[in-house]
Structures are given as C-alpha cells and as structure tokens.
Write a structure and sequence with these properties.
alpha+beta; two-stranded antiparallel ribbon; elongated
Length: 141
C-alpha cells in the first residue's frame, strides 16, 4: 500500500471507530420514565394518601410503586390554583421521558424544595442532560 492508501484507510477506520462509539453511547442511555402509556401523566408528589407520589383515576389515588423517574426537564413553573376552596401555589415540573410527566407539588413542600435545590446545583452543561428524580419521605407535610 502506498502512503495515500494508508492515509485513506486510517481515516476510514477512525470514522468507523467514532460511529461505533456513538452507537455504544446510544445503547447505554438510561431508560426514561415509569411506564410506556401514551399522553401526559400528572403525578402528585405528596404524602396525602400514604404514598410519596400517585396519579388520579376517577378522583381515586393510584399509588406509584416506582421510586425514580428519569427524564429531561422541559419546564418548571409555579401556578396559582384552587384546592379545597383556597388559593394555593403549586410547583409544576414537566419531565419528558417515554411520555410527558407533570409533577405537581405544593410550593413549600419537602419535594419542591429538594427538586429546586437539585436544579440549583446543575451547571449549564448538565441542564441539557437527563435528570433522575427519586422520592424519599420527609418530615413536613
């Protein structure tokens, strides 16, 4: 082989190596979400029904046994709403995973404070990557 052919072969091998690295990286990505149903899923993050987080179906709480949600934070906002005849503020965190999850929590709860503290510690390069949220019991209601 002449030097030109060696150079072309080396360049092709380097491109192939880069493609293999990208393939391995895509295979090693974490599985996102709790389950694979389509549409939005609103998750209530409080201990009102004896669990750390739950969904509602026909106004009945459905406990979520999973202890972690991994996805991409798309939106974080506070919203004023009415609950039990009173105006309250809720923290709404929209997480994109296998579907869109909307986490709702009181604005001053252990969950809200923990989530905001975790986000505060992100540097700009980590904000674009996935966030892994877990639940643990706190002492406040």
């Amino acid at each position: 082989m002449n030097p030109q052919e060696n150079s072309e072969l080396l360049a092709a091998l380097m491109r192939q190596e880069e493609l293999l690295k990208q393939l391995i990286a895509s295979i090693n990505k974490p599985k996102l979400g709790l389950h694979s149903e389509a549409g939005n899923c609103k998750i209530y993050c409080n201990r009102k029904h004896g669990v750390l987080w739950y969904t509602l179906s026909n106004s009945e709480p459905i406990p979520i046994a999973a202890t972690a949600l991994t996805g991409y934070l798309r939106e974080l906002k506070f919203e004023k709403c009415e609950r039990r005849g009173k105006e309250v503020y809720k923290l709404l965190a929209t997480i994109v995973a296998d579907r869109t999850y909307i986490l709702e929590s009181g604005h001053d709860t252990h969950f809200a404070k923990g989530l905001l503290a975790a986000i505060r510690n992100f540097d700009p390069t980590t904000i674009i990557f996935s966030h892994h949220t877990t639940t643990t019991g706190g002492n406040d209601r």
